[in-house]
Amino acid sequence: MALNDRIRKFWLGVTATDEAADAEGASIPHDDSSWSPVTLAVNALATAQGAGVVVYRTKADMLADTGRPTGTGAWVLIDPDPAANTSYIWNGNAWAVSFDRLTFALGNGSGFQQAGAHAELRSIQDKLRELSLSPTDFSNPSIANGSATADASLLAAIEQANTTGQQITIPAGQYKLAGNTTFPIDLGRFSLVGEGDVTFDCSAFTGSNVFQVYSSAQYPVAAYKNTKHRFAGITLIGGKVAGRHGILVGHDDHGYAGQIHFENVAVARFDRNHHYTNNAWRIAWRSCTFIDAMTWLAIAPKGLKNAGEVIYYDHCQFSDGDGDIQWACDSWQVDMVGCSILNTTMFVAGQGVTVNVFGGSVTTSATPSNDISHRASKGLAQKATQAVKTIMQGRSTARSPK
Predict the structure, then answer these.
(1) Which end of the chain is more exposed for a tag (fewer CB within 10 A), N or C?
(2) Could you tell me which CATH class the domain 135-392 is placed in?
(3) Lowest mean pLDDT among 123-137, 157-171, 280-294, 369-383
(4) What residues does each domain of the chain span?
């Protein structure tokens, strides 16, 4: 992403006049008062690309430095004379004012200083690297309009996030995933968050799971690391292909996925929209939607190890298509608060499973059964056995209990 784009987005609040003046290749006039001093500086020094950029506190400091290579750019930041705080270029004999477009990051000098008496000069590049990562940092921005696949860029961002612990922020856009590699999201290390309307078109994805979400952190560190990270603000759309699943929660090799949570996630048109594997427990989903699955909107299959305890859904929707819900893993507790469970059968097949449905809109069946062939029968039947306890506090009337 261009340096100009980053700075304007986070700090400048660019005006319409700025944007109009910033047409591709346009030079910035010295006397154009519509540009702020920082914008002028950020758009300066095109000829300094090969020689680097040096930042000075005062113009006197710059004038005293005459040993620079021809083409070196300069940026005076805090001269007592405000008119001197602009950009210059060394022409071999003297420093001359320059207003050419800056197209490369000012990484060779110090270009940012925070307010405050003890603030230090830093390079703009270092400052920007404190911000969250984006897949567009590792590719051209065309991946955000679906004209290019985003698989390699997203994997590169994940690799960097695993190293630095930075959040991955996905800018608004329509992204296409068409590879066969699952994207590992380690919420013990970093968050993955969509900013604005973020959709991943996974209809051409050929792997088993688009995302696997888990935590590699070990207890007790995981108890606070997992809590502060999240998977949020993303829509996943599959192609209703057998064996192609949306989100797999848990990991065979990492034993503490407790307290990981999902927010504002929508998953549609996969074989399994979301499902669980070993070491998935204390999982929270808030304001999420699971719709139009091929077989399962949600499933915890039988035989999972170190999984269950409390799986929590808060104001989520499960609905439509051929997909249903199945809790087949023994000894699970599932709490569904204010959820909409519509045109969907919930199968409670595990031993000692408790499903608590509090309020919400429930037009479903809750069927304790080890025979998943029953999944074809939708209705309002509710049964209970000693092995399965199902508490339905919402009914097809879509009213909370009084």
Answers:
(1) C
(2) mainly beta
(3) 369-383
(4) 3-129, 135-392
